[in-house]
Amino acid sequence: MRKEYAEFLQLFHPQPGYKVQQVTTHADGLTKVLADFMLPYDGRLALSMYPGEHQEFEASEYLKPQIVSDFSKPFRALPRDNDIIVLDDILHRHAFPERILKACYTTLANTGEVIIMAPKGEMDVKQLLEDLENMEYRAGNQIDIFKDRDLIMAKKMHMWGNGL
Question: Of the candidates 133, 142, 140, 128, which has an alpha carbon nearest to the alpha carbon of residue 161?
Answer without folding.
Answer: 133
